[in-house]
Design a protein that fits this description.
Helices cover 39% and strands 4% of the residues. With 186 residues, it is mostly helical.
Length: 186
């Protein structure tokens, strides 16, 4: 256990039947995390990267109350993941049903976020992902450290480049998040 409390890849069930040690006290005047808006950025990244592994029943997220930080992990199911190993599809359908942001805790985080904060986070994501030269530089750095035997296909990085630089996909993700989740903010 890290700090006071952690949750991860564990379906804790409905909040009204949870054991006391798993209860999230949402009626407190003190928020459980000082940066609940991070869940919006995590959702944007998951949709952009087609990460279908972080969901209501499998959060793949550690919330460390002692250092007030969220840690995301387990991106196995990105870019097609287990469904299409080695075959990345830029046109894969954007699916947000059952995402972690729709869980009780995800909704709680959204309710601690103002609509203006939401818009700032989305705008920053747009700026951060618009720098194609930087994205390519990071991708090349990753490519240089991954052993060739780990590559699932000979053109894996070419496929990743097409995926990450596909502006239409980013635009669809951004509109999807705005339409689907902004309404839950205060």
């Amino acid at each position: 256990m890290i700090g006071k409390a952690v949750f991860a890849s564990l379906d804790l069930g409905r909040h009204d039947v949870l054991k006391d040690e798993y209860q999230i006290k949402t009626d407190s005047t003190q928020p459980i995390c000082s940066k609940p808006q991070d869940i919006i950025l995590i959702t944007l990244m998951d949709l952009w990267l087609d990460n279908r592994d972080r969901k209501v029943t499998n959060s793949n997220l550690l919330l460390n109350f002692s250092d007030d930080f969220m840690y995301v992990f387990d991106h196995y199911d990105c870019f097609g993941g287990t469904r299409q190993i080695g075959n990345i599809n830029v046109k894969s359908m954007i699916q947000s049903n059952g995402m972690f942001i729709e869980s009780n805790l995800g909704q709680y985080f959204l309710k601690l976020t103002s609509k203006s904060q939401f818009d700032i986070i989305v705008d920053k994501f747009i700026l951060d992902t618009a720098n194609n030269a930087l994205l390519l530089q990071v991708l090349k750095q990753i490519q240089s450290i991954i052993p060739k035997q780990w590559l699932l296909s000979s053109n894996l990085f070419d496929q990743l480049e097409l995926f990450l630089l596909h502006n239409e996909r980013k635009e669809i993700v951004i509109e999807h998040v705005k339409q689907r989740f902004r309404r839950y903010c205060i």
